[in-house]
């Protein structure tokens, strides 16, 4: 009897329950939902490898490289999410590049713990966030001309998530996405993230990043009306609304003192406003 392969993936189990935004929701076309879920599971499991505090940087990179080889057709059941993703790509004909892009971001996470400035952070989001939207658009056969608006929305979501998790990222992984130049301009260092609440300097950094994120959300507001597939159009509209709501909440609350997150009423309100707004358009 052949023993089952030991998986190199280290899923945390936080997949759907920890997401701020819809993951393959009922708005997505039924036949595409399994492929959306395969992509999110692939990305989540790769992310969990990069965030595993019990693995060295070299071990993380080796596991992520193994996922890449299976994605490209190498045999092996030691990365089931990568195998399922490969099957999805074969069935749909979508390029594997978006998957390779997110793997690139997670390899960066294994070795890069600081970001110089906003441009440096946006370069990271190009690989960590933008491929998610591009994958969904390609799955639906949408025009690549709308990638810039999608990239803006995905990057905004990524920065909001970084702000939500800034204390835990520093405490557990010594990883700081807040640009060092912004911290220096406020006269503070990364060590302020270990405090129980944000001081005035860190609050200025948060607000400056939120200003730049608001500009990304504004750029993304036209995205839903450019999407041909009705379900994806509505999902994009809802996500834009959720991003704006989370941004406002982060303006009012301190992510060092509490977990700043959306609640059920936010999802309901974003659904109503988003879907009705697209309908009026």
What does this structure look like?
This protein is mainly α and 281 residues long. It contains 13 helices and no strands. The chain has helices at residues 33-50, 57-71, 80-92, 97-111, 118-128, 130-139, 147-164, 166-173, 180-185, 200-220, 223-226, 230-252, 264-280. It is globular. 41% of the residues are buried.
Distance between the termini: 61 Å
Poorly predicted sequence stretches spanning 5 or more consecutive residues: none
Question: What structural category do the secondary elements indicate?
Answer: mainly alpha
Shape: globular
Order of helices and strands: HHHHHHHHHHHHH
- State the share of residues found in helices, binned by percent: 55-70%
How many helices does DSSP assign? 13
Number of domains: 2
% residues in beta strands: under 5%
CATH structural architecture of the largest domain: Orthogonal Bundle
Write the CATH homologous superfamily of the largest domain.
Farnesyl Diphosphate Synthase
Q: What would CATH call the class of the largest domain?
A: Mainly Alpha
**Main sheet properties:** none
CATH topology of the largest domain: Farnesyl Diphosphate Synthase
Radius of gyration: 19 Å
Mean pLDDT: 91
Count of extended strands: 0
């Amino acid at each position: 009897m052949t023993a089952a392969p030991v998986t190199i993936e280290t899923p945390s189990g936080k997949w759907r329950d920890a997401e701020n935004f819809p993951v393959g929701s009922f708005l997505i076309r039924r036949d595409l939902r399994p492929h959306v879920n395969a992509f999110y599971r692939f990305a989540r499991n790769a992310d969990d490898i990069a965030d595993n505090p019990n693995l060295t940087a070299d071990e993380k990179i080796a596991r992520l490289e193994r996922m890449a080889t299976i994605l490209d057709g190498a045999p092996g059941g030691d990365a089931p999410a990568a195998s399922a993703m490969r099957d999805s790509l074969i069935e749909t004909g979508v390029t594997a590049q978006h998957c390779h892009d997110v793997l690139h971001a997670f390899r960066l996470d294994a070795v890069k713990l600081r970001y110089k400035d906003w441009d440096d952070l946006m370069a990271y989001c190009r690989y960590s966030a933008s491929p998610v939207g591009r994958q969904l658009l390609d799955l639906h056969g949408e025009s690549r001309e709308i990638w810039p608006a999608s990239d803006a929305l995905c990057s905004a979501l990524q920065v909001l998530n970084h702000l939500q998790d800034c204390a835990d990222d520093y405490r557990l992984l010594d990883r700081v996405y807040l640009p060092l130049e912004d911290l220096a301009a406020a006269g503070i260092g990364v060590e302020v993230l270990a405090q129980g609440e944000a001081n005035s300097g860190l609050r200025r950094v948060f607000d400056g990043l939120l200003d730049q994120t608001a500009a990304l959300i504004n750029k993304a507001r036209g995205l839903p009306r450019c999407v041909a597939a009705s379900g994806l159009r509505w999902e994009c509209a809802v996500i834009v609304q959720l991003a704006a709501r989370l941004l406002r909440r982060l303006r009012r609350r301190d992510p060092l003192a509490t977990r700043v997150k959306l609640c059920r009423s936010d999802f309901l309100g974003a659904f109503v406003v988003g879907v009705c707004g697209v309908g009026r358009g």
